[in-house]
Design brief:
The structure holds two protein chains of two kinds.
Chain A (H helix, E strand, L loop, with lengths): L7 H11 L4 H4 L21 H13 L22 H7 L2 H4 L11 H18 L3 E2 L6 H16 L3 E4 L5 H13 L3 E4 L18 E7 L11 H9 L3 E6 L18 E5 L15 E5 L12 E5 L5 E5 L6 H4 L12 H38 L5 E2 L7 E5 L4 H10 L6 E2 H4 L8 E5 L6 H16 L1
Parallel strand pairs in A: 2-3, 2-4, 4-5, 5-6
Antiparallel strand pairs in A: 1-7, 6-7, 8-9, 10-11, 11-13, 12-13
Chain B lengths: L75 H12 L22 H7 L2 H4 L11 H18 L3 E3 L5 H18 L7 E5 L5 H8 L3 E5 L9 H7 L4 E7 L11 H10 L3 E5 L19 E3 L20 E3 L11 E5 L2 E5 L20 H37 L16 E3 L11 H10 L6 E2 L9 E3 L7 H19 L4 H4 L12 H6 L21
Parallel strand pairs in B: 2-3, 2-4, 4-5, 5-6
Antiparallel strand pairs in B: 1-7, 6-7, 8-9, 10-12, 11-12
Helix pairs in contact in B: 2-9, 4-9, 5-6, 9-11
The chains are: A alpha/beta, B alpha/beta.
Chain lengths: 448, 527
């Protein structure tokens, strides 16, 4: 077995040193009825050739985004990740190390995290950011729980533009601890609809911009209303490339800003692993979930970095911790940070402008298709359109022609009553030819 | 897992011996000093070439940033050097034995990296129509089959994103099951003092009160104490097996019998499943829910602290409450159950936006296929053999916490043997760095004084194990001979000397902030 260095002679020698007659002696504490005398009923070991053959055959049954015209978004976006990023994350010292518990021999990871936190805080326009969470949806749930700790109130108001999966994850976690979730009806352009639900019991208001329908919203007035009621404003972003061009959550009064960072560096990966970005006002830092990296000095006065404020965390506080989270999404945070380092503010702005330009082209083209109506009034790189009949059926039919035409709202939220609404995104990877193919195929379907 | 210098922030001693020879530039030979990206002049440049954008922002509703985003951009060669230089300041499995107990730092096969990057997996959208993702769903189905077969459990929820997330999933399933049966007054979760910190944190996170179970002198759950505390207010017990002392719970069948008799569920923390995979099925032990850290037992890379993956296997009693989504195979192929209605009416909810850590599923499945049923069993045996070999070789000098009987995949020592030397567990661990090894897990589990938890994994050759044992015995000899400076001011040969964690916590500086754009603030100084 290629991954196991010991041979039979080694094992005999070691058993001798231990003073055991055989390997079974070392498993003597296992109760007899639970001991398996032989391997379980699964195939035996296989060489690289066989393993690669099986996995490649499975991969070939999928239709990757790059195989043809592709317009899926709804919380996961296809972007060009520079080849350099993948090279960097495959460095042994990043890939095969663990959480930097021993800072003297983990300065590589720690400096990356410090740079990552600084990049995320700047991007979201916030004062401090943590070293990442699992993904955007769990970051959203953590933000609501954090707001509860800060305000000691029990209710969270979620906008109808919040990604339905984010609402579901937040509801699952928050209701388990006795919170009340007030989710507003799904609507393309109604983030301000949360205002009616804010009351003196409200811990936080959660809004999303661009929202799941692609709508871009200035949430400054919502922040003011939340603050007037003693509640916090949580702003969610699932497409961080938008922040290269748009006013960031921090400038609109967000107390906590969370985002899915997958667009930079990480790739689609069928939904995971991704990287949750989490930032807040400095005064709330001790209520934050997750790992934090901070600057310090070593015994010779040289600058270094360590994990810090760990008295918030489960390994010390146990049942009194701010969260049960143990790790972050380290390697994805590195990928995000390396991509962000390549782009810089200038490159991200350009990338955002290219994305927006492609989306404008897409929206114009869709609007010209008879029977199709563009619903999103203000957008970055994604729009919702109304199509004749079932959007899900349309997507399946177009997939049969090799076009992945987007995400039907019914896939995310079957009870929303928006079965005829389709979400389509365009990025820098979308070509004019892709849009032409979509429009031609769509016109044929909608006409008849 | 969590762990290590738990609750004991370090402060360097003020009279640490100087570094001796110093270069003129401040670097250390090939080990380069590397500034933060913010300390360069590249504030307006970029390392990515992009096409000319179309003009026009009128569709943005007037929300364009007034201030441009201020972040530095580096050219590609500068970027590569920045990260490669930083990487050289890290220890890694690929460099040497990484004996972090409870964390299972085993070899990460590169075949798995290659396969996870196939476009059919890496460039696949989670919400593409199911007809376009049949291979991905088939892979999830096969992975589920392997996990269920290896654990002897009937169901698995794949979506949890890490071990702690899996614990949350398991407890939410337990909560839902109790609610469905009208057992709403069950408010307690029992967990041993030796438990991972995530166990009580998770229980509290979902609104349970935590009560500790005592431990016997031989490092196991105190059955009498458990029996006394089990009643109709207990929702679940959370027990790690093999436990955090590296020992198999001999009374595990009685533990599960008592738990079930009290109407509670048995949550098993599966962090140490790697010790028994292929030799013991948790389903045969009466477990109701157990998370499996794919990044431990099935070797997906730890990546400097994630991403992990924590699927949860479930018993018949808990299976109906599993979170969405899951994969179903019917006559025509695979499909996803994504909504909590109809066939998923009892599902407790959703753990994450999409389907879980697909990238980790591919790697873990490739690892399973490579090992096979025989290789996985052999891997568990080798992991246990290696730990017992270390325990046997070091026990003459260092004090094993539980000397009688075998350990499982990790060997636990305490600090009795250091008494009177002036050297602490922390000092000893830091001195290991100078010998080229990552320290073991320190001060965990909490039930052992000055704990040193050593987990070698099956990836180590006899030669590397001997090199490691020789180094530790050498250090132990130095400590006992009074060579205290070697320890109290260690590490001497790492990229940095001991770091001031107290200062970092007292004056948190969590982001780089310029006094003015492009100018670094004054450096922190120890008081």
């Amino acid at each position: 077995m290629r991954y196991l260095p010991l041979d039979a002679a080694d094992r005999r020698h070691m058993l001798g040193v231990i003073g055991a007659a055989g390997i079974d002696d070392l498993f003597a504490d296992v109760p007899a009825p639970a001991r398996l005398s032989a391997p379980v009923d699964l195939p035996y070991h296989a060489g690289e050739i066989e393993v690669e053959r099986e996995l490649s055959a499975l991969a070939a049954l999928n239709r990757p985004a790059g195989a043809g015209p592709f317009f899926c978004g709804a919380g996961a976006y296809r972007h060009q990740v520079p080849a350099t990023v993948d090279h960097i994350i495959q460095r042994s010292e990043f890939l095969t190390s663990y959480t930097p518990y021993q800072p003297e021999i983990a300065q590589g990871t720690l400096q990356v995290l410090f740079e990552f936190q600084t990049q995320v805080a700047a991007l979201l326009g916030m004062e401090v950011a943590n070293a990442s969470l699992y993904d955007g949806s769990t970051a959203c749930a953590e933000a609501v729980m954090m707001a509860r700790r800060i305000t000691r109130r029990r209710k969270a108001v979620l906008s109808g533009g919040l990604h339905p999966h984010y609402a579901a994850v937040t509801g699952t976690i928050a209701t388990a601890e006795g919170m009340e979730i007030a989710r507003r009806p799904a609507a393309v352009d109604a983030e301000a609809d949360v205002l009616a639900a804010i009351d003196s019991e409200t811990a936080c208001v959660v809004v999303q911009t661009p929202n799941v329908f692609g709508t871009v919203t200035d949430v400054t007035a919502i922040a003011a209303a939340a603050h007037a009621a003693g509640a916090l404003l949580v702003v969610v972003t699932t497409e961080v490339v938008a922040l290269g061009l748009l006013k960031p959550p921090g400038e609109m009064g967000a107390d906590i800003a969370v985002a899915e960072g997958q667009s930079l560096g990480v790739g689609l990966n069928f939904g995971g692993p991704y990287v949750g970005l989490f930032a807040c006002r400095e005064k709330f830092v001790r209520q934050m979930p997750g790992r934090l990296c901070g600057e310090t000095v070593d015994a010779e006065g040289r600058r270094g970095f360590v994990l810090t404020l760990s008295t918030r965390e489960q390994h010390i506080r146990r049942e009194k911790a701010t969260s049960n989270i143990c790790t972050n999404s380290g390697l994805c945070a590195l990928a995000f940070s390396a991509h962000m380092t390549l782009l810089g503010g200038t490159g991200l702005r350009r990338l955002a402008e290219v994305n927006h330009g492609r989306a404008r082209t897409l929206a114009r083209a869709l609007g010209a298709v008879p029977g199709v109506e563009v619903l999103t009034p203000r957008f970055f790189n994604e729009v919702a359109v109304r199509v004749p009949g079932s959007a899900a059926a349309l997507v399946e039919a177009l997939a049969g022609e090799g076009i992945l035409a987007g995400v039907p709202v019914s896939r995310l939220d079957p009870s929303a009553g928006l079965d005829d609404v389709l979400l389509l995104a365009a990025t820098e990877t979308t070509t004019a030819a892709d849009i032409d193919s979509l429009v031609v195929a769509l016109s044929r379907r909608t006409r008849g | 897992m969590s762990l290590n210098s738990v609750g004991r922030p370090t402060r360097p001693v003020s009279d640490a011996p100087g570094a001796g020879f110093a270069s003129l530039s401040g670097g250390r030979g090939l080990l380069q000093d590397e500034a933060l990206i913010f300390e360069r002049s590249s504030w307006t440049s970029t390392g990515v070439d992009l096409p000319e954008p179309e003009a026009g922002f009128e569709d943005l509703g007037g929300l364009v940033r007034a201030e441009p985003l201020r972040l530095p951009g580096l050219s590609e060669p500068e970027t590569v050097r920045h990260y490669v230089r930083l990487s050289q300041k890290n220890h890694a499995i690929d460099l040497a034995l990484y004996p972090l107990g409870s964390c299972t730092m085993k070899h990460n096969p590169r075949l798995n990296e290659k396969l996870a990057r196939l476009p059919g997996f890496a460039d696949l959208h989670p919400l593409a129509p199911v007809s376009a993702v049949q291979g991905a769903l088939a892979l999830m189905d096969r992975l589920a089959h392997w996990l269920k077969t290896l654990t002897g459990m009937p169901a698995v929820a794949l979506s949890p994103k890490a071990g702690a997330h899996g614990e949350l999933c398991g407890l939410l399933a337990i909560r839902a099951a109790h609610a469905a049966h009208g057992q709403t007054r069950r408010r307690l979760v029992l967990t041993p003092t030796s438990a991972h910190g995530t166990n009580p944190a998770t229980a509290a996170f979902v609104g349970y009160e935590v009560m500790e179970i005592g431990q016997t002198a031989d490092g196991r759950v105190d059955l009498a104490d458990l029996a006394a505390k089990l009643n109709d207010e207990v929702a679940a017990i959370m027990v790690t097996n093999p436990n955090t002392c590296g020992l198999f719970e001999r009374d595990i069948l009685e533990i599960s019998r008592l738990t079930h008799a009290a109407g509670a569920y048995f949550y098993c923390d599966g962090a140490n499943f790697n010790a028994i995979v292929g030799r013991v099925r948790p389903g045969d032990l009466g477990v109701d829910a157990m998370h499996i850290n794919l990044h431990k037992t099935f070797s997906t890379p730890h990546g400097g602290g994630g991403p992990g993956s924590g699927p949860v296997v479930l018993s018949e009693a808990l299976a109906p409450f599993a979170p969405t989504p899951w994969v179903v195979h019917d006559g025509e192929g695979f499909r996803l159950v994504e909504e909590t209605e109809a066939e998923a009416a009892q599902a407790f909810g959703r753990m994450t936006a999409f389907h879980g850590q697909m990238g980790m599923f591919v790697r873990a499945y490739a690892y399973m296929l490579s090992h096979g049923a025989d290789g996985l069993r052999q891997a568990a045996e080798d992991a246990v053999l290696n730990a017992n070999y270390i325990k046997a070789r070091l026990s003459g000098v260092m004090s094993a916490a539980f000397p009688d009987g075998p350990c499982m995949h990790e060997a636990l020592f305490d600090d009795r043997w250091l008494e009177g030397t002036g050297v602490t567990t922390l000092d000893f661990a830091k001195a290991m760095i100078d010998e080229g090894f990552h320290p073991m897990t320190m001060y965990f589990p909490l039930v052992v004084h000055g704990a040193m938890l050593i987990e070698p994994t099956e990836s180590e050759s006899l030669a590397e194990l001997d090199r490691f044992c020789d180094a530790l015995l050498g250090l132990a000899g130095a400590a006992l001979a009074g060579d205290v400076d070697r320890f109290t001011s260690a590490p001497h040969l790492a990229p940095l000397r001991r770091l001031d964690e107290t200062l970092a916590a007292r004056k948190p500086r969590l982001t780089w902030r310029p006094a003015e754009p492009g100018v670094a603030p004054a450096p922190l100084a120890a008081e």
